[in-house]
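input
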Amino acid sequence: MRYSVSLLSLVLLTACAPPHPSPAAPDRDEVAIYGLVTDSVLDTAGDPFVVMAESTLVVRMKAPEVAAWAARLDSTFPAAAIRDFEARNRTPVVVPGATASGKRIRHLRLGSFDPERDRDSAYVLRGYEPVRSLHVLSRPGFDPERRRAVMATATGCGGFCADTRIVLLARDARGWHVIRWEVVEQG
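output
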């Protein structure tokens, strides 16, 4: 399995994608997971803010691929969470404007890109200096008890610098925790 993702391909895939319905508001568990993953999985150290796509998006990752990676990371990962991942990612949600740590998120409107004009990734992130990476999150898929979850992230930093990650999470009495994550594609 190979996922080739770059900032430019994120822009082009989104700009050429069929229109999604307007993003809905994420639920409480989603908000907690987005903050946790942003603060603990994405490489944003030293940046004054995080540049994030304004809404969730699954970048060329479908349930069978997510299921294969989740099984590789945890052979007991519930299949119901993968089915929920697929179902929930049919409808985008708005990504919150701050993380659990309080780090500010500046949203980038992917749907506003013009594929002809915006081929240069430096142009895409113009106005977001000194930050040089754009992050895109999927919606998490949950098991029926909402104790386990899976999600995907994509990060582009211009040219062919990019990665895609699968993140497995678990919830206990203290809240959500990242249990394992892995870069499944790096470019």
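quick obs: Strands lie at 50-53, 105-108, 134-137, 141-142, 148-156, 162-172, 175-186.
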